[in-house]
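FORM 12-B: Structure-to-Sequence Request
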């Protein structure tokens, strides 16, 4: 139990947990199924290059989201790169600054300049109203990111893309198993890219997929993920090795069979967080629309420092001492990471909402390693810290001053 300031590990109390609680602890489906698949793969002696497991995985993903084509890749970053190239993006493409760095790097890797757009603070997603002013004669595409699995304003972005004759794709790394206006994500824009990284609620250990309803785009992407080979000895386009392995596909297939269980666990935990975070002034849980389908894989809180007195970073420090490894996704924003920081040193001026959000959000652990007991304890830590915010901050500030004094004296 964490009831008083002195119970907090940062002030000498016993840490709430013995083992670290991660935000991205991988989900694993039936071990028997997986081992059966692995044995079968070993018996077949077919380990990669679009084997039967990858084909099956692609079919399952396409069926699940109701899209015509799925091209499995070795990870979402390479999936994004292939999709961008297959779409013919050049010059500049507009993306939100509030995203994982892979969205920006996938463009920059092929010398397409990412132009960072601010977000809508209500949705945490790219703000269509701000997209239009960033369009220049060099712009060839817009890439929305469905942050936390909450869909972008797809219609508004589609209209802008049509009006300016731009390609539109979505980084749907967080959004497998989520819907927008009743339709599964995977069906919007020219294409969408999912991540099946170990930390995603359905994982293939490393993996991704490009999903589209455009047959010609699918054909190009498929060529590109296999070095451009159209046949033995025949290369039609510049390609890369973006193939998913059979072992990854097997993990993915076993996990897909448990998808409903994973969502139920995440949804249950989301409910516990709603219950135990209720009425903590200055802490807002990011909510998901009841009318849409969600994977609930991210539990995100926003810390309003004006109310809590404690900064988000101080709260993170408190949680880490308790072995709750909360993460500051996507601090400090892509525009503040290299090479973009050097290239656009003043980008922050136009990215006010991104900067504010990047300083205030914290992702908390969920998934099968977490249940009501753990959520209750995590929320107790947050409650004790925030409800005693002024005192906790004072003690932390004094300790920090003491540390820097000792360091200074030791020089
Ligand atoms: N676009 C967006 C919007 C994305 O968020 C991402 C990736 C991508 C594109 C690119 O997708 P991929 O190319 O990765 O398929 C993690 C993930 O590595 C990354 O996939 C994810 N987004 C990002 C949001 O989070 P890190 O650097 O924070 O991961 P890491 O290794 O610290 O893992 C998070 C936590 O999970 C750790 O506390 C430890 C725990 N963990 C991790 C692994 C790998 C485990 O318990 N077991 C494990 O096997 O980026």
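FORM 12-B RESPONSE
SEQUENCE OUT:
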């Amino acid at each position: 139990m964490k009831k008083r300031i002195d119970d907090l590990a940062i002030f000498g109390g016993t840490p709430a947990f013995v083992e670290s609680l991660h935000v991205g602890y991988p989900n694993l489906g039936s071990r028997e199924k997986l081992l059966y698949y692995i044995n079968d793969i070993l018996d077949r002696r077919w380990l990669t290059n679009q084997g039967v497991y990858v084909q099956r995985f692609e079919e399952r993903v396409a069926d699940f989201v109701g899209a015509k084509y799925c091209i499995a890749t070795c990870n979402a970053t390479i999936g994004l790169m292939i999709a961008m190239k297959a779409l013919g993006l050049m010059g500049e493409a507009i993306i939100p600054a509030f995203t994982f760095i892979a969205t920006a790097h996938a463009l920059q890797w092929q010398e397409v300049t990412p132009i960072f757009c601010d977000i809508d603070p209500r949705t945490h997603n790219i703000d269509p109203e701000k997209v239009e002013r960033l369009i220049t004669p060099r712009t060839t595409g817009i890439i929305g990111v469905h942050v936390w699995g909450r869909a972008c304003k797809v219609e508004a972005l589609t209209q802008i893309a049509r009006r300016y004759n731009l390609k539109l794709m979505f980084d749907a790394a967080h959004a497998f198993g989520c819907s927008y206006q009743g339709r599964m994500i995977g069906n919007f824009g020219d294409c969408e890219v999912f991540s099946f990284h170990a930390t995603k609620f359905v994982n293939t250990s490393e993996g991704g997929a490009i999903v589209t309803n455009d047959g010609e785009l699918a054909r190009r992407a498929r060529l590109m993920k296999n070095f451009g080979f159209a046949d033995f000895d025949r290369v039609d386009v510049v390609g890369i090795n973006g193939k998913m392995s059979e072992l990854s596909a097997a993990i993915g297939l076993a996990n897909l069979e448990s998808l409903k269980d994973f969502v139920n666990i995440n949804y249950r935990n989301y409910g516990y967080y709603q219950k135990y975070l209720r009425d903590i002034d200055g802490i807002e849980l990011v909510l998901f629309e009841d009318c849409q389908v969600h994977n609930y894989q991210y539990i995100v809180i926003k810390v309003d420092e004006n109310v809590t007195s404690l900064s988000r970073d101080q709260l993170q420090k408190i949680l880490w001492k308790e072995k709750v490894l909360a993460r500051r996704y996507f601090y400090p924003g892509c525009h503040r990471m290299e090479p973009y920081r050097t290239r656009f040193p003043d980008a922050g001026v136009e990215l006010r909402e991104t900067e504010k959000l990047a300083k205030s959000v914290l992702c908390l652990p969920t998934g099968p390693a977490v249940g009501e007991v753990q959520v209750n304890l995590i929320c107790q830590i947050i409650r004790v810290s925030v409800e005693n915010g002024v005192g906790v901050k004072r003690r932390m500030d004094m300790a920090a001053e003491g540390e820097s004094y000792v360091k200074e004296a030791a020089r």
